[in-house]
């Protein structure tokens, strides 16, 4: 319907409604004995002024399927002004006002016009919307964000969700209605409410919710059959990046149960901005994220060094596009850290101020079967790039390590521990500040269980877990990269930095959450226990007993003391590793990585 057609239709409808109100009002007021001319003039005046005021207040431009209190107030103004103006004219002409008649007409006028408009809103909400087979939706959070979500869903024809109730822990809101939806209880009532109200969908609408609180709510939602989604972050809503009806799935990262690590921007800017920075392993999941975050601090030049040409090409293309309006020079170097001459050449050519060493072999079972490659890449490769950094007087060298280097039971963990020792040794002989950073498991990285679990779920299961009691510390890729950068700012030399990663997570719980987040029941997919793989431990540690400092050096970051360094033994392994049997090499690595020097042991302190 065109605007003119719609306007003509509304004028015709309102004319009939006003005349009906006039005639019924006259009957009710028993004023039909008034002279015909008096009643006729009053009626014409009311009708004329109704249309004039309706045009003035844009009544005919309103979309009535979204009618609210604001529209009702406009109708009340129009009716009141039309009746009042007509009464004044009536008094001017006839020197008398039938007050009873005008009061009754005012009431009927308001009822007929307002009722006709709001009938469409009610019809739409109660009939049309109900017949569209929309998913019954429970909104967790009856605050301003939750109300915005409910209002948006109620208005939207396109949304496939129909809000039916609120959940909120504020007891003062319980049993009250908001936008016609009841607040039916707190978080503990989610399971019973979802069952009794046949909920298909749950939206967590608390943008300011911390991860611990989200985890608590999600555990309750996971007990239901409903799909659970979450409202975007509050800052994204405020800045207009997303709207309140753009929900996203809850991610495993949301359930870590602690606040993410934040950066000290000033300290990082001091040693990165306008400097030349080199990242080894720049094509990997952690190395590429380091490149993204370093670029945000506008270094003069960023060297992307890696062995895989496709991954280096991909991150280079991404950075060139994202930072095309900056003066950052991105340089790619396809090189192997096992090549000593190439490392010296790269360092001499670019003379970086900062080196982030993220290149390494990290897969535990693969390194158990290939200990020679683990030594070549993790120890020899680290020695090559560290010595090259020393000779070219790099300011800061940050090595990415792992919690598997603590009391290692695997070849991978052992080689990373020995690489840490070499880094700590280099700090004692060099002007370069050498430090290491230990991570737990990084969610979403190529070596993480998350991609494996997702593939298994996509295939219909089962999800394979090695042991029901296996636990791990977890962090996100951005967190891991921030920790590396912050370590460079905090480095005095020789330290091992560790993130306080909260409570460890059981792998089986992680698998169950991921199945639920993917929209399946655990029974549909299934979980299968396969047994522990070679080199695996049931739990990981972040610092050995003789490395522990009890205070944080930065919020959520701890620092380890320098422990024993067995340089001669490391050099002996490097001179013989290619000539000895794989099993003998494995035993030597584990023995040296777990060796204690009693003269340097420190008293135990708890974190």
UniProtKB/TrEMBL annotation:
Residues 277-560 form the Polysaccharide biosynthesis protein CapD-like domain. It comes from the Bacteria. It holds the Pfam family CoA_binding_3. The keyword Disulfide bond does not apply. The chain crosses the membrane at residues 7-28, 40-60, 72-93, 99-120. Gene3D superfamilies: NAD(P)-binding Rossmann-like Domain. Keywords: Membrane, Transmembrane, Transmembrane helix. Belongs to the polysaccharide synthase family. This is FlaA1/EpsC-like NDP-sugar epimerase. It comes from Cytobacillus purgationiresistens.
């Amino acid at each position: 319907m065109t605007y003119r057609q719609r306007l003509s239709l509304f004028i015709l409808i309102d004319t009939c409604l006003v005349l009906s109100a006039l005639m019924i009002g006259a009957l009710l007021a028993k004023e039909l004995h008034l002279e015909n001319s008096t009643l006729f003039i009053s009626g014409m005046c009311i009708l004329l002024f109704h249309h004039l005021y309706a045009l003035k207040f844009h009544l005919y431009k309103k979309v009535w399927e979204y009618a609210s209190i604001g529209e009702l107030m406009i109708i009340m103004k129009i009716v009141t002004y039309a009746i009042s103006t007509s009464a004044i004219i009536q008094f001017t002409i006839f020197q008398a006002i039938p007050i009873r008649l005008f009061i009754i007409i005012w009431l009927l006028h308001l009822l007929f016009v307002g009722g006709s408009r709001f009938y469409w809103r009610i019809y739409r909400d109660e009939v049309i919307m109900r017949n569209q087979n929309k998913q019954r939706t429970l909104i967790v959070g009856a605050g301003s964000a939750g109300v915005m979500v409910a209002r948006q869903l109620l208005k939207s024809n396109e949304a496939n969700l129909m809000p039916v109730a609120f959940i909120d822990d504020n007891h003062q809101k319980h049993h009250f209605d908001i936008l016609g939806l009841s607040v039916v209880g707190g978080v503990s009532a989610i399971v019973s409410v979802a069952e009794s109200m046949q909920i298909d969908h749950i939206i967590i609408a608390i943008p300011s919710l911390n991860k611990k609180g989200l985890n608590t709510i999600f555990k309750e939602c996971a007990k239901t059959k409903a799909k659970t989604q979450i409202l975007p972050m509050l800052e994204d809503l405020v800045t207009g990046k997303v709207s309140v009806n753009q929900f996203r799935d809850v991610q495993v990262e949301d359930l870590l149960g602690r606040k993410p690590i934040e950066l000290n921007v000033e300290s990082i800017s001091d040693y990165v901005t306008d400097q030349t920075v080199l990242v080894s392993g720049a094509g990997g999941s952690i190395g590429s994220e380091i490149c993204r975050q370093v670029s945000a601090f506008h270094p003069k030049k960023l060297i992307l060094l890696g062995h895989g040409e496709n991954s280096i090409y991909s991150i280079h293309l991404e950075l060139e596009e994202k930072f095309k309006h900056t003066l950052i020079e991105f340089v790619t170097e396809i090189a192997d850290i096992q090549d000593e001459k190439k490392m010296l050449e790269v360092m001499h050519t670019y003379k970086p101020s900062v080196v982030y060493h993220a290149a390494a072999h990290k897969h535990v079972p693969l390194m158990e079967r290939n200990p020679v490659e683990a030594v070549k890449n993790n120890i020899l490769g680290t020695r090559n790039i560290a010595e090259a950094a020393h000779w070219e007087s790099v300011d800061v060298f940050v090595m990415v390590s792992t919690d598997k280097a603590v009391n290692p039971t695997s070849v991978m963990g052992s080689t990373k521990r020995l690489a840490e020792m070499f880094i700590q040794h280099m700090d004692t002989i060099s002007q370069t500040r050498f430090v290491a950073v230990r991570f737990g498991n990084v969610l979403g990285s190529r070596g993480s269980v998350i991609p494996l679990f997702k593939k298994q779920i996509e295939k219909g299961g089962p999800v394979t877990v090695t042991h029901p009691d296996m636990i791990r510390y977890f962090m996100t890729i951005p967190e891991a990269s921030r920790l590396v950068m912050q370590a460079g700012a905090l480095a005095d030399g020789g330290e091992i930095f560790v993130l306080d990663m909260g409570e460890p997570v059981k792998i089986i719980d992680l698998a169950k959450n991921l199945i639920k987040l993917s929209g399946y029941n655990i029974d549909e997919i299934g979980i299968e226990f396969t047994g522990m793989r070679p080199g695996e431990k049931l739990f990981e540690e972040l610092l050995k007993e003789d490395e522990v400092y009890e205070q944080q050096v930065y919020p959520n970051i701890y620092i380890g003391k320098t422990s024993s360094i067995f340089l001669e033994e490391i050099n002996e392994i490097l001179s013989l590793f290619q000539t000895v049997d794989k099993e003998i090499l494995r035993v030597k690595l584990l023995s040296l990585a777990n060796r204690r020097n009693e003269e340097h042991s420190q008293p135990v302190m708890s974190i």
